[in-house]
Structure formats: C-alpha cells, structure tokens
Sequence to fold (226 residues):
Amino acid sequence: MNHEDTAAAPRSEGAPDDGLSRAQRVYERLKEDIRAGVLRRGERVREETVARALGVSRTPVREALARLQAGGLLEVTANGLVVVTISHAQTLELYAMREVLEGSAARFAAQHAAPSEVSVLMRLGASFADAFGDAIRLADLNRRFHAAILDAAHNRYLVRMLEELSDALALLPGTTFQLPERGPLAVEEHAAIVEAIAARDPDRAEQAARHHIQQAQEARLTLMRF
Fold:
C-alpha cells in the first residue's frame, strides 16, 4: 500500500477497540482509504504493509482483506490483490440500484419515522447547508443524512442491501460535492425528502429521493468526464 506513512498512525495490539474487533476496524479503515483515494484504483494492497501501517497483526488484516474482496472492493490480478477499478457501465448500474433502494428507504421512513428521527433529518439538513465550500464535510454529512433516513425506515433487510451498496460506492473516486453547484442543489433535494417524510407522504418521499439520486448520478457522470 502506498502512502503508508499517512495511511494510519500505528496503534498497539492492546489499544482499545471501542467495541469493534480489530478485523472490523481494519476493514472500516481500508474502506475509508479507498473512498478517500488514499488507496487508488488499481493499486496493490499488501497484507504485511497494511498490518505495519495500522499497527496490528496480519490476522485481522487478512480477515479484512478477504471481506473487502468478497464485497467487490478488492480483486486478485496478476499483480496481486488490488483495488477494483469501476467502469462507466458499472457506475450506471450502481446508481440504478441506489435510486431504487434509497427511494424505498424514504418511502418506509415516511411511514415509520419517529418524530425524533425526523428532527435528526432536519438538523442534518441544516448542518449540510452550513458546510458549503468544504466538499469532504458535505460528503460526510450527506452519508449521515442517508444513514438517518435508513434508520428511520426501520427495515433490517433494506439496511443490509444499502450497506452492501455503500461499500461499492467507495470505489467511486472523489465526491460529487467537488462540483460547486452540487451542494446548493442537494440542499433543496434533501429538504424535499425531509418535508415529504415529515408529512407522512410515502409517494412524494420516494419520488424526492429518487430525484436526488438521479441528480447525484448526473453529477457523478460530469465528474467522470473531467
């Protein structure tokens, strides 16, 4: 793994895991490194280098790498284990599924969200509007917004499907919020989703969520052309 000096600060085997296993912690860190571009598409990932960079033994790294491979984020090539490079066609397929699943999440949220969960969505929407100019923070708040909708949907099977899809999204380089126009548009799209959920209108919530993902896809395709 390149950039091992910046990939992670070493930590001892005895350091606390905050409830996460070492394998889970390594998995989450590598997934985030792929999302952030610290691990680039097509880059080789070596078990021993990851273990040294993260200050853990090779066993949890081996487990994490196997999970990333099973999830389609890593693949075995003639050069070894590398980060998958997602194609244009795969990107379209990914967003097509995201539109369906995110639309369903918003529909269920309109039916099942508790008042406190609607309040969380409103607060995240406000925080998002305050973060213009910071693409990384916007991307993080956007993920949290969608996670909050999923929580409000109260459907464990949808959670599993969207978690798997979220892993695949990590393969897309950068963030659509690098485009200056994307943030203001997303604020309006988020507001439409929250308004429909708060109004207990499943049809409108699903339609608003689908529109949001369609716009995100257009932004992604624009970014890919640069």
